[in-house]
Amino acid sequence: MNPTYTPEFSPLGKKADYQDHYDASLLFPIARQQKRDEIGVVECALPFAGVDLWTGYEVSWLSGKGKPQVAIATFRIPADSPRLIESKSFKLYLNSYNQTRIASWQQVAAQLELDLSNAAGGKVTVSLLSPAEFGRERIVELAGESIDELDIEVDNYAPARTRSRPMRPTWSARCSPRSC
Q1: For residue 68, what are the β-bridge partners?
Q2: Per the confidence metrics, is the pTM higher than 0.90?
Q3: Which of 99, 108, 117, 136 has CA atoms 20 to 30 A from the CA of 39?
């Protein structure tokens, strides 16, 4: 990965010009491991699983005939991917589709998946909802345990195992200190 893909070089907080045509180079991936190292999380022994879930409520492009198209897009980026995608760059990238002609919705989804997977370093999935399907989109609490409604006090933000030493996995043939 390009060494300039660290937060200080991201477009966040900087003036940016909007592109009027598709441009995948607008995506700015940031390595996850640097921040994980700070809290002792070893890449090949993540203590969690899941996805980064992003929703684009107004993703647009032009049909092959130039007619504006709009969709609600859902993006699922694996939490174990080596990189996340910086939010402003993600927005600029999506906006670069606005004046771009693309023959089909399937091609839009496929291009989004390809570009985002390349940036994240893992398989990103994309789903697009047409305006006719907007009514079925529901906002609900995600499945799983949530601490959002618990009246708790938090003063330790490190993994529970230890704050003084990084977490170490039980090494196996598939995961050794040299391969992590």
Answers
A1: 62
A2: no
A3: 117
